[in-house]
Amino acid sequence: MAAADLLERIRDEAGLIVLPEEPLSHHVPLRVGGPVELWIEAENEDALIRLISHARSAGGRWRVHAPFTDWLVRDGGLKGTVIRLGRDFEEISLHEEHMVLGAAALWSGIPVQLEGGLWDAIRRWPGSVGSLFEQGGAEELTGLATHIEVLRGGRVQTMQWPKDGPAPALGETSVLLRVHLRRALGARQWRKAPMRTGTLFQNPKDSNVARELNRAGVLGTRLRRWRLSPTEPGTVVHLGGGTFKDLQMLVKGLRMRVEKTRGLTLETRIPILGNEPGRRN
């Protein structure tokens, strides 16, 4: 097995926290999901480079989970390895003309020395730098970001970010390490905040999820240990002890109700990963 091979390869490596069969419910925002074969936290860049080199040699699937990235993990868990960027990637440093944020840094951690409406708004963004990229919201940094640092092919590379252009494409085998932002205001003053963690559905074309759920009369709907928030439309609340299967039933019911009453098919925005209990494909 690839995970067993990787575990043997990294047994004596420094800077790694290794948790075999770690429940992903301990780490994803919705607190649901079975175990992953290996959960490994890399405390610094050197440890991460060595870890990914070993992971490629061992084969098998590995993926990075940034803090506060929404995943829906089935109760049977995941095959392979999940990598979390550790403490060195949580750092935020201020310089004369720019700021550097590690991929695991929280937006709420932006220093208060940066004043003004733009920075006050970004400090209220949910999640981390990495979760913004993983969930497709990086374009909101256009005009503010100058470049990013990624780990690709075993080397740290710098990717320039055009002032008026899209975010650099990372690719499946690249790992975001850091983002560099201008301290001065960017080209755009108004930026859209990332969706709150636990927001189930994408906005349908020419409409809004919150509006459609409200008009369908489903706000506050509860199924076992899950509830659709009555105050944050579209966001699901885990009441504790819920399973993925129960949440899946709630999602199915909400979609059917909205389709019947509003004529819209809602699409989930959170990736669904893993296997049913008793299976590890």
Could you explain how this protein is built, in words?
This protein has helices at residues 2-9, 45-58, 117-123, 129-134, 209-215, 244-262; strands at residues 16-23, 35-42, 62-64, 72-73, 78-85, 92-94, 98-102, 145-152, 155-160, 175-182, 222-223, 226-228, 236-238, 272-273. The chain folds into 3 domains: 2-87, Uridine Diphospho-n-acetylenolpyruvylglucosamine Reductase, domain 2 (2-Layer Sandwich); 92-182, Uridine Diphospho-n-acetylenolpyruvylglucosamine Reductase, domain 3 (2-Layer Sandwich); 209-265, Uridine Diphospho-n-acetylenolpyruvylglucosamine Reductase, domain 1. It has 281 residues and is α+β, with helices and mostly antiparallel strands. Strand 8 (145-152) and strand 9 (155-160) form a beta hairpin. The chain has a 5-stranded antiparallel sheet, with no helix packed on it. A 4-stranded mixed sheet has the order 1-2-5-3. Strands 11-12-13 form a 3-stranded antiparallel sheet.
- How many β-strands, per DSSP? 14
Helix content: 10-25%
Distance between the termini: 12 Å
Total number of helices: 6
Major beta sheet summary: 5 strands, antiparallel
The averaged pLDDT comes out at 91
CATH topology of the largest domain: Uridine Diphospho-n-acetylenolpyruvylglucosamine Reductase, domain 3
Radius of gyration: 20 Å
Taking pLDDT < 50 over at least 5 consecutive residues as the criterion, the unreliable ranges are: none
SS content category? alpha+beta
Please state the second-level CATH architecture of the largest domain. Answer: 2-Layer Sandwich
Strand content is: 15-25%
In terms of quaternary structure, what is this?
A: single chain
Please report the first level of CATH classification, the CATH class of the largest domain: Alpha Beta
The figure for the number of domains is 3
Q: Numbering strands along the chain, what is their spatial order in the largest sheet?
A: 6-7-10-8-9
Order of helices and strands: HEEHEEEEEHHEEEHEEEHE
Q: Globular, elongated, flat, extended or rod-shaped: what is the shape?
A: globular
